[in-house]
Design brief:
Helices cover about 30% and strands about 25% of the residues. The chain has about 170 residues and is an alpha+beta fold.
């Protein structure tokens, strides 16, 4: 995927099953906080209880996926520095999701129809944006244009993953 035949400033391909970065789940650590919340307490105790809150992503696999994307981006940094500290950039993301074994072999639906399932495209994009922050660009707010595509692998033996292209905006 490109913009008006522009050459990308940086391109990587990360092999693996893309993982969405969904909402965060918050819960209280059951040991110290529960007893403090069941009774009236001074503000110092309330602060201790708040420190006992645990906030984590709903998907436990997202951290490993972001690490994998970050490692590929860092490897490219060693070959050719591409870090853009400030200023606008454009990203193009092409996700390839694994093909299910249950997909019809004869008269299969279109790739777009197969891809119109979970996970959500915006959550897949969020994981990539956060993984590249500090490696390819200073902050993901620098992204001013974004083209994203999600398709299903053409065959069972085709590797899933994502191709990430970054373009500088002059």
């Amino acid at each position: 995927m490109t913009w008006d035949s522009e050459e990308p400033y940086a391109v990587i391909h990360v092999t693996g099953i893309p993982v969405p970065q969904g909402s965060l789940t918050a819960f209280l650590n059951p040991n110290p906080a529960r007893s403090l919340l069941q009774r009236r307490m001074p503000i110092e105790s309330l602060l201790k209880a708040l420190q006992a809150c645990v906030i984590m992503p709903q998907s436990r696999k997202v951290k490993a996926w972001r690490r994998q994307v970050a490692e590929e981006a860092e490897a490219m940094q060693y070959r050719r520095p591409v870090f853009v500290e400030s200023g606008p950039i454009k990203l193009a993301l092409g996700f390839v999701m694994p093909r299910l074994k249950s997909t019809r072999k004869y008269d299969p639906p279109s790739d777009a129809a197969l891809a119109a399932k979970q996970p959500d495209l915006d959550k897949l994009t969020r994981a990539i944006g956060d993984a590249l922050e500090g490696i390819w660009y200073g902050n993901d707010s620098q992204i001013v244009d974004l083209v994203v595509r999600k398709r299903v692998a053409p065959s069972l033996d085709h590797e899933p993953g994502v191709t990430i292209s970054m373009f500088r905006v002059e």
